């Protein structure tokens, strides 16, 4: 790699003298040449050329990374600078710039940027080369390096933690501003350096001018706070947060400029997606228009990526969107270009359609946002937003699964209702998931405005102030207004440019004398009417078209299509009214300009222009429908001009179509506007001449009125439609709308009543309170109808009768309302639906009906074999139709109920996972929530409490979206049950805890229509809890309470589980009862066992182990001991095969009790240990503690208390390990040897320093240099007392240690105590938002970086290491933590081992910590198999029993035992067990 760049006319004389090429190092070493390059003109000439050469590399996305004088060559023949590649240059990859793994050569260390040392949590980029240029320029000007060091460790430390001395210390003749340039290049923090080569060269060009003009860059003034808020929010987004920042202020105050400036600047140094959209003041009535505009731009960008990158995005979006890709592609056409052909989405009821749209759009955004690609979406002019767009923003912000997303929304605060903004709602749903911030831009001050004048007119501040003071109050501190005043003065020749003097001049007296109008309206009007009439006409049409427009379209609209209007457009642009936009379009320079022009147009002229725009757009439509909303919107605005009935009818149909398109996207307020407009345009006689069109428009309006919260208006429209409906099909269409409204409001009974009433019109009569006899007759009838027809169900003809299809849709509409509130009606509905299907053919509804009837056959009739078969047919038929809303219902009923009782656990998981996905994809949140509930219910009898709790927590995030209170309440109950089992509630048998009142919960549930199901679950949990607590009578009581709600629990695994624990409790009581009482209970026990055996018959996989345990207990109670032992073993064997640790735990405990009572103590200990292990896996600590205590009581021998503690080894073990690791690596460069150097210096300090104080000081110096810190401390202590064992700070003299820390004057006391208590690592970086900003020390000193980590060895806490860098942010990378801990732990341990030769006492905590560590040192760890053998030894098993248990040879067991004895330094089993417990190898 070689890059050349010519040197300007100030080329140094030595170019004429030297050989063809010399390195900059050779020139600097040549005394005569060195004096030349130190002259300012020569330096500037070379510096510009070198910088430009580096800039050419950066334009190619290449970093040099090894810039130094040896690699910069001056070519005399070509008068150019050339860069030489040393092999470290890198190209930008798709992940950005990646630091080379082989580091930097030692020769490059003096010029190495801090972030390139590998010691900072920052990536390298172009600014890394700029730092190296700073070092080179410093050396060229002063003849010395800014830092001096003699080894790699020192060099790294200097670059990270030390500031260079001022250049003026070495030479005083530097021109104004040059030193500032060099020091800016040498900033530790890359964000404070120049952001690109261009900015550096611009400032080099200004050297020698006045300070006032040197560093004035085209940036914002007076907005430092606002910039910091936006920047901090962005970096929080980069760490995974979801953020929204509102930027408020009046028109022209600089909201858009501020936001664009901040993010364009960040884009120079960080890769992220920045997309923008803007609401129109003249609404185009297009749903989510700015959001869609923004994402369309992003999709175009992705389409322009390389093929491999585009393919990755395609796969990512395809996985996220699935079959719902068309939901997004219909509004963002570029998605289909990226994905290819996408399937049409399923047509859904409005409410489910909205849920689907929100869900799919969330998935779309989730796919686009990541740690590698944070997304910033800037929405301008939010004050003009429609409700649907605000709701979409709300949905994205409140998405619990969304990360790396930032909204920035600009709005005019005087025109905005803040209470409607996402994040300011009373429910707090946004603030739970996202951070909301608000910035208000105030008018600029006089001084800030004067700075703008200085920049604009290139004048000095004093001269400009007189003009600023005169005009400031006219502009009221608004920068846009102020600039318009300056333009006006220029137009009037009051403000002129003097070419001779190269400056602007003005006459204050003339300004005061003429007193022109300075109102923003007058200024804009002045500019408008300066234009020719043709240009004004073009602008009037453009203002009607929108803030952005196509000039060719406007030419046609104003009938100048044939003529060339380029001259007029250029004139308008030169006047500052418009600016070029993408794809040959223009946009107005500011909203105020468009608003003014639009207000100048007469109403009749507006209508005419809008009509012409609408017709032109429609004529030019390419068939994609991309401009369909805009077409209808313009035609609507000109509708009063329409007199032709055919044109009017066309517009009515266009409004219906536009409303349906908006409704499909869930933009109900936009859709309602189109439906209302269509109804408004309907002539009075259209009910007679075009009934279908009139009915459809009113029906859609009725639905959208409700969806927009206009309930009274919706009811009025529904009554109006029912009055006009001509037949049952049309009335049912309206009834279904009302039924869905009832269900959405939780009024299940009212929805059911209306559905049954509507079905009567279709000759389907179902009583709301059917008798049991009716149920029996209907179920038998369906069984007879289905006999031998299962295989034919999938192949029935399609239903075509319109009335019967309507009846099936009515039945489907009231399935959710009847399932949990009226099981009898639910069954009859299924029976009627199957009858209709068998008679008229299949519909998609039939698939859900088959699954529902299969569920009924299993639950109610106990025929799970047949129920499973017909349910499977329903699943296959739903997959055949491939309609997600139907699949979600079929999968939920089949997987959540039929597979639970007649299938396999894997089937349950698979089908419910698909049910959830289909439910979310289709917006069927009711069945998506049921799928979630069913999945958790299926896990309840077969997973650990930890896994169950984790599953519930994960699903809670989904329930925040589905908002299903029924499932949520059941999950709250689950969580309390888990807490009770874990011993974390107020009492062992209570569900009360902080934030949960059991009585209040039950009182609230009683009011719900679905309370019966919840109460059965509640009583089941109480039954199980009381049994595990040994309260058998209470367990039986709760099981009897559950009986009342049994009919509503037939679909739950809780039903057999409740009976299981009831039987265990009854058998436990029977064992201790008198023989007569036991005999009297025998018949009931046998009856209940027969009942339980039905589940075993249906699903032996799930229920056989439990049944074996019940049989074992029954045999034990009735003195059939041999059979009992057989059944215990059978239960354990099958439970282990199924990985059912719940049954293993229970069986082990009961079997241990049995064997202990029978005198088989060894077996009892074995089974009890098995039970303990099982309960640990289950996650019930109270049972574990109880049984472990029992295990100790049952030990045949008391474990010996004597033990052999291993001698305390030299505390250098950590250092030796780290050193050994370092020596095994191939040292390829100097930076990689830093770890080794630090370790060796630590070893030398321990070996050579005469006192502990000297040793600790030397080790701390090594630590801070290795880490790149400017301050460091080693502390020991506890929550109450803290002792500083070692302290190093360049600005504070050392003091004798140890010393107690009493306050935060030297160190952040609160932070250190936090680490002592939590044992957590804490990192602080200046740019990040952090809870540490509230720490007094951090708030006062604001270090660039801080690190506080616990120092522990073998799990024993020794102390805390605190490090701080005042200058640089992002220091203390985690890669080097291991070496830091090794050094720090040795420092503290040496205090323990050596004491203080000077008589300084060690703190008591330090001695205790050291002793704890020394006791835990074991020279060689035990293998996994040796740990298994050790555990069995502790259980009292012989070598033969261990061999049988582990299925290995006895000789192998003996070898393991010998190794265990050797590693633990013991010679007996009892001593091995005791020593293992001391070392925490055994519980």
List the defining traits of the structure above.
alpha+beta; 59% helix; Rossmann fold; 5-stranded parallel sheet; Transferase(Phosphotransferase), domain 1; single chain; 1483 residues; 6-stranded antiparallel sheet
Structural features, described:
- The protein is an alpha+beta fold and 1483 residues long.
- Among the domains are: 2-214, Transferase(Phosphotransferase) domain 1 (Transferase(Phosphotransferase), domain 1); 224-440, 3-Layer(aba) Sandwich (Rossmann fold), CATH 3.40.50; 446-515, no CATH class; 1099-1193, Serine Threonine Protein Phosphatase 5, Tetratricopeptide repeat (Alpha Horseshoe), CATH 1.25.40; 1213-1415, 2-Layer Sandwich (Beta-Lactamase); 1424-1478, Orthogonal Bundle (Arc Repressor Mutant, subunit A).
- The strands form 6 sheets. Strands 19-18-17-22-21-20 form a 6-stranded antiparallel beta sheet.
Q: Beta-strand level of the residues, as a percent range?
A: 5-15%
List the quaternary state of the chains.
single chain
Portion in helices: 55-70%
- Separation of termini? 63 Å
User: Strand pairing plus helix content: what structural class?
Assistant: alpha+beta
Instruction: Please report the total strand number as a whole number.
Output: 22
| The CATH architecture of one domain | 3-Layer(aba) Sandwich
The neighbouring-strand order within the major sheet is: 19-18-17-22-21-20
Write the CATH fold name of one domain.
Answer: Rossmann fold
Question: What characterizes the major β-sheet?
Answer: 6 strands, antiparallel
CATH superfamily of one domain: P-loop containing nucleotide triphosphate hydrolases
Top CATH class of one domain: Alpha Beta
Q: For the residues shown, what is the average pLDDT?
A: 82
Dominant shape: flat
Question: How many distinct helices?
Answer: 68
Low-confidence stretches: 9-18, 209-219, 1197-1229, 1395-1403, 1412-1416
CA radius of gyration is: 40 Å
Keywords: Transcription, Transcription regulation
GO biological process, one term: negative regulation of DNA-templated transcription
GO molecular function: ATP binding; DNA binding; protein kinase activity
InterPro entries: AAA_16, GAF, GAF-like_dom_sf, Hybrid_Histidine_Kinase, Kinase-like_dom_sf, P-loop_NTPase, Prot_kinase_dom, Sig_transdc_resp-reg_C-effctor
């Amino acid at each position: 790699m070689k890059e050349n760049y010519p040197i300007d006319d100030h080329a140094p004389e030595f170019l004429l003298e030297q050989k063809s090429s010399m390195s900059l190092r050779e020139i600097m070493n040549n005394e005569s040449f060195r004096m030349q390059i130190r002259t300012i003109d020569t330096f500037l000439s070379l510096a510009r050329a070198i910088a430009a050469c580096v800039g050419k590399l950066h334009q190619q996305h290449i970093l040099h990374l090894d810039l130094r004088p040896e690699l910069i060559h001056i070519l005399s023949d070509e008068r150019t600078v050339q860069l030489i590649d040393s092999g470290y240059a890198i190209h930008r990859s798709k992940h950005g710039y990646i630091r080379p793994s082989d580091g930097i050569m030692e020769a490059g260390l003096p010029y190495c940027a801090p972030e390139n040392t590998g010691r900072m949590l920052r990536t390298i980029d172009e600014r890394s080369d700029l730092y190296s240029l700073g070092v080179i320029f410093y050396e060229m000007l002063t003849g010395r390096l800014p830092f001096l060091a003699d080894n790699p460790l020192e060099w790294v430390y200097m670059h990270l933690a030390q500031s260079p001395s001022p250049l003026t210390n070495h030479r005083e003749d530097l021109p104004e501003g040059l030193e500032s340039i060099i020091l800016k290049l040498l900033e530790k923090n890359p964000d404070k350096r120049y952001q690109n080569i261009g900015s550096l060269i611009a400032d080099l060009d200004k050297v020698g001018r006045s300070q006032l003009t040197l560093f004035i860059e085209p940036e914002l003034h007076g907005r430092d706070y606002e910039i910091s808020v936006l920047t901090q929010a962005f970096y929080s987004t980069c760490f995974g947060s979801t953020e929204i920042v509102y930027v408020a202020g009046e028109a022209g105050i600089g909201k858009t400029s501020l936001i664009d400036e901040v993010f364009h600047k960040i884009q120079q140094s960080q890769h992220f997606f920045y997309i923008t959209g803007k609401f129109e003041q003249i609404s185009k009535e297009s749903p989510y228009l700015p959001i869609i505009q923004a994402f369309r731009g992003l999709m175009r960008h992705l389409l322009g990526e390389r093929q491999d990158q585009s393919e990755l995005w395609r796969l990512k979006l395809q996985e996220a969107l699935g079959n719902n890709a068309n939901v997004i592609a219909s509004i963002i056409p570029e998605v289909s270009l990226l994905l290819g052909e996408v399937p049409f989405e399923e047509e859904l009821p409005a409410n489910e359609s909205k849920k689907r749209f929100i869900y799919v759009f969330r998935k779309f955004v989730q796919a686009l946002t990541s740690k590698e690609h944070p997304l910033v979406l800037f929405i301008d002019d939010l004050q003009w937003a429609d409700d649907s767009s605000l709701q979409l923003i709300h949905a994205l912000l409140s998405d619990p699964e969304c990360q790396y997303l930032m909204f920035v929304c600009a709005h005019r605060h005087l025109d905005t209702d803040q209470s409607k903004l996402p994040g300011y709602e009373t429910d707090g749903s946004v603030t739970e998931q996202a951070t909301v911030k608000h910035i208000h831009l105030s008018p600029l001050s006089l001084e800030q405005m004067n700075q703008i004048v200085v920049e604009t007119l290139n004048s000095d501040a004093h001269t400009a102030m007189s003009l600023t003071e005169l005009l400031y109050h006219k502009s009221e501190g608004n920068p846009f207004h102020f600039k318009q005043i300056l333009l006006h003065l220029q137009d009037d020749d009051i403000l002129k440019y003097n070419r001779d003097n190269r400056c602007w001049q003005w006459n204050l007296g003339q300004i005061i004398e003429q007193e022109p109008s300075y109102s923003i309206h007058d200024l804009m009007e002045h500019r408008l009417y300066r234009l020719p009439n043709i240009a004004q006409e073009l602008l009037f049409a453009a203002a009607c078209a929108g803030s952005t427009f196509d000039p060719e379209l406007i030419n046609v609209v104003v009938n100048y299509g044939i003529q060339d209007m380029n001259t007029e457009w250029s004139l308008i642009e030169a006047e500052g009214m418009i600016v070029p936009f993408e794809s040959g379009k223009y946009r107005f320079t500011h909203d105020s300009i468009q608003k003014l022009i639009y207000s100048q147009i007469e109403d009749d002229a507006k209508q005419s222009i809008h009509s012409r725009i609408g017709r032109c757009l429609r004529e030019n439509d390419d068939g994609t429908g991309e401009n369909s909303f805009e077409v209808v919107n313009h035609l609507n605005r000109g509708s009063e001009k329409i007199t032709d009935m055919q044109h009017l009818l066309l517009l009515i149909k266009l409004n219906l179509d536009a409303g349906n398109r908006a409704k499909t996207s869930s933009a109900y307020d936009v859709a309602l506007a189109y439906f209302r407009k269509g109804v408004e345009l309907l002539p009075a006689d259209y009910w007679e001449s075009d009934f279908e069109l009139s009915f459809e428009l009113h029906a859609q309006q009725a639905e959208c009125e409700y969806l927009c919260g206009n309930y009274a208006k919706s009811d009025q429209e529904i009554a109006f439609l029912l009055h006009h409906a001509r037949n049952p099909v049309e009335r049912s269409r309206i009834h279904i709308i009302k039924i869905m409204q009832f269900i959405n409001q939780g009024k299940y009974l009212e929805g059911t009543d209306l559905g049954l009433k509507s079905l009567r019109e279709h000759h389907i009569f179902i009583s709301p309170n059917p008798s049991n006899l009716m149920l029996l007759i209907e179920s038998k009838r369906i069984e007879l109808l289905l006999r031998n027809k299962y295989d034919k169900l999938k192949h029935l003809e399609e239903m075509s009768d319109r009335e019967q299809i309507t009846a099936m849709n009515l039945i489907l509409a009231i399935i959710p309302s009847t399932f949990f509130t009226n099981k009898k009606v639910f069954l009859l509905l299924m029976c009627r639906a199957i009858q209709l299907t068998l008679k008229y053919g299949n519909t998609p509804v039939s698939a859900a009906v088959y699954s529902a009837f299969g569920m009924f056959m299993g639950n109610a009739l106990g025929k799970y074999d047949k129920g499973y078969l017909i349910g499977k047919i329903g699943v296959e038929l739903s997959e055949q139709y491939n309609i997600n809303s139907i699949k979600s219902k079929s999968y939920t009923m089949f997987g959540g109920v039929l597979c639970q009782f007649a299938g396999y656990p894997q089937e349950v998981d698979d089908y419910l996972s698909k049910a959830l996905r289909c439910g979310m994809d289709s917006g069927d949140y009711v069945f998506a929530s049921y799928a979630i509930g069913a999945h958790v219910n299926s896990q309840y009898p077969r997973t650990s409490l930890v896994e169950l709790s984790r599953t519930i927590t994960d699903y809670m995030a989904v329930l925040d979206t589905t908002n299903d209170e029924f499932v949520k309440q059941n999950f709250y109950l689950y969580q309390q049950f888990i807490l009770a089992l874990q011993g974390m509630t107020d009492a062992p048998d209570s569900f009360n805890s902080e934030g949960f009142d059991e009585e209040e919960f039950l009182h609230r549930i009683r009011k719900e229509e679905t309370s019966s199901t919840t109460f059965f679950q509640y009583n089941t949990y109480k039954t199980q809890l009381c049994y595990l607590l040994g309260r058998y009578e209470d367990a039986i009581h709760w099981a009897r309470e559950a009986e009342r709600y049994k009919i509503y629990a037939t679909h739950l695994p809780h039903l057999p589980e409740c009976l299981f624990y009831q039987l265990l409790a009854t058998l436990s009581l029977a064992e201790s009862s008198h023989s007569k009482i036991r005999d009297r209970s025998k018949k009931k026990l046998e009856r209940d066992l027969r009942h339980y055996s039905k589940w075993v018959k249906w699903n032996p996989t799930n229920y056989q182990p439990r049944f074996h345990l019940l049989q074992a207990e029954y045999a034990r109670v009735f003195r059939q001991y041999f059979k009992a032992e057989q059944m215990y073993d059978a239960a354990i064997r099958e439970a282990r095969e199924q990985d059912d640790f719940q049954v293993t735990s229970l069986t082990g405990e009961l079997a241990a009790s049995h064997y202990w009572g029978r005198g088989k103590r060894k077996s009892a200990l074995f089974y009890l240990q098995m039970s303990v292990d099982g309960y640990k896996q289950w996650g019930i600590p109270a049972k574990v503690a109880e049984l472990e205590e029992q295990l100790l009581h049952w030990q045949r021998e008391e474990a010996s208390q004597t033990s052999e503690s291993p001698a305390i080894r030299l505390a250098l073990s950590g250092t030796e390990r780290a050193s050994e690791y370092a020596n095994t690596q191939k040292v390829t460069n100097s930076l990689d040897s830093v770890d080794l150097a630090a370790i060796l210096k630590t070893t030398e300090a321990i070996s050579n320093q005469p006192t502990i104080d000297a040793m600790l000081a030397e080790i701390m110096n090594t630590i801070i240099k290795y880490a790149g810190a400017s301050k460091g401390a080693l502390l020991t202590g506890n929550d109450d007392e803290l002792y500083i064992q070692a302290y190093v700070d360049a600005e504070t003299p050392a003091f004798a240690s140890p010393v107690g820390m009493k306050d935060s004057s030297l160190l952040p006391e609160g932070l250190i105590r936090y680490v002592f208590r939590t044992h957590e690592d804490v990192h602080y970086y200046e740019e990040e938002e952090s809870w540490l900003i509230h720490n007094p020390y951090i708030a006062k000193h604001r270090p660039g970086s801080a690190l506080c980590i616990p120092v522990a060895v073998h799990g024993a806490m020794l102390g805390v290491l605190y490090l701080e860098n005042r200058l640089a942010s992002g220091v203390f990378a985690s890669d080097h933590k291991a070496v830091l801990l090794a050094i720090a732990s040795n420092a503290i341990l040496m205090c323990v081992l050596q004491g203080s030769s000077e008589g300084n006492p060690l703190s008591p905590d330090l001695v205790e910590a050291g002793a704890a560590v020394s006791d835990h040192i074991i020279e060689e760890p035990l293998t996994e198999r040796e740990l298994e053998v050790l555990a069995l030894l502790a259980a009292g098993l012989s070598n033969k029993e261990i061999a049988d248990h582990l299925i290995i040879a006895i000789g192998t067991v003996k070898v393991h035992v010998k190794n265990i004895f050797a590693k633990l330094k013991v010679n007996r089993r009892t001593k091995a067990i005791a020593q293992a417990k001391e070392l925490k190898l055994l519980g």
